[in-house]
Amino acid sequence: xxTEVAADALGxxxxxxxxxxxxxxxxxxxxxxxxxxxxxxxxxLLNKGHSCYRPRRTGERKHKxxxxxxxxxxxxxxxxxxxxxxxxxxxxxxxxxxxRRLGPKRTCRICKLFSLSKEHDxxxxxxxxxxxxxGKKPRTKAPKIQRLVTPCVLQHKHRCIALKKQRTKKNxxxxxxxxxxxx
Length: 183
Description:
Layout: E1 4-6, E2 18-26, E3 41-46, E4 62-67, E5 75-84, H1 107-113, E6 129-131, E7 139-141, H2 151-182
Antiparallel strand pairs: 1-2, 2-5, 3-4, 6-7
């Protein structure tokens, strides 16, 4: 797994292509797991955060059968990712480009995409999705912009800082009064 291989052996149309092995399954359906250095099957105790396992309850662990990360003839499915394109396009795979369905939602990512500064208003730059239903007026839909710095957000931030300063000042005064009582 994770090794880059020349795809010339797959056929004439794959000449010049380089692919990365990203995983696979064997005949009974055991998935390949990175880090298990064998070409056979191994039974591992897996918990939350491990690949090849999704816990159903919190803290649940389970023994699962996984395949090693070494490729051999017993694999029925091998997942590949194209790293380098060759001379010819492959029909249905590299001949068409699918546009991104959604644009960025976070303020800083919108600014990065359109090379805007922090002072710019990002509202006109949000990518809107057209909704065209028959018999209705065409309209567009846009996501809610996250991490947008508005006057309300700044006011809340300044208020929190002011309250924190008041608390520290009050605590210092109370500490000095208590020190006077003890002296």
